[in-house]
Amino acid sequence: MRNIRVPFRLKQKLLRTAVLTLSLALLLGGCGPLITAPDSRDIPIEKKEKKLDENGWRTILEAVRVSKSITNFSVQADLRTREQNKYHESRVFGHVVLPDKIVMSQSVDGRSYYVYQDENITYYRKEDVWRPVERIRLPDTWGSLERLSNAQLSKVYRQKDISMLTPNDTEVYEFEADAVAVAGLPAPQGKSIPSRYTIYIDKKDRFIRQIDIVSTSAVDDVGTLFSEAAIKFFDIGTTKVEMPAALEKHLKEQKR
Questions:
Q1: 3-state DSSP helix/strand/coil percent for the chain, to nearest 5?
Q2: Which residues pair with 150 in a beta bridge?
Q3: Which of 1, 55, 83, 174 is the most exposed place for a label (fewest CB within 10 A)?
Q4: What are the beta bridge partners of residue 91?
Q5: What is the pLDDT of residue 234?
Q6: 120: confidence class by pLDDT, cuts 50, 70, 90
Q7: Domains of the chain by range and CATH?
Q8: Which residue has the higher pLDDT, 201 or 139?
Q9: Which DSSP symbol is given to 133?
Q10: CB atoms inside a 10 Å sphere around CB 106
């Protein structure tokens, strides 16, 4: 059981300000293992056409500023981890209306979870059982990238534009940074986790469409942990948070 849960809990913490998976992670609880020194050479090198962009970081921060003004959106996050010969997958899909409304499902190694919160209630579902829980404070999705503006970043590269909704509608930027610093976490024993970030920016409206994160780290009692995460934002400005029919039925039955 420990080998199944440790990698997932660790990565939840590393990405908590970049992906809204934390909303459910807070309910699952638990502490991750200690992190030891990783080797950045273990990060897979993708052979993509790219060039150094001196204005790349400025462009990313401007996209962060635009994205912070968005109050409702949908999100899908896929996380894959590998340690030794074990593979784990997690997927989050849901809708968010800031500052505190959320409806989100999560699948972790085949097990499903659900969370719903509006102005008045917060409920969590596990194994088809709905339970009231404490209010969830949604993380600052963009604050982690803003925090890097005062750091000494490695070079920012621009890849070829790609097509997501219409031809060549998305700019793609890439840089390397310490995942612990990005997440705003205390560095265990002064160690870091070098990671590669790929940022996808809508060419017209300038908000962030997607964030990819690839990292490799050494974890006590586990070994080398390789992780890939892809966080996609969509339905910008049109998303609504509605109570699931199953929860609505549950609440009606409680009142009887």
A1: 25, 40, 35
A2: none
A3: 1
A4: 78, 107
A5: 92
A6: very high
A7: 2-250 (2.50.20.20)
A8: 201
A9: -
A10: 22
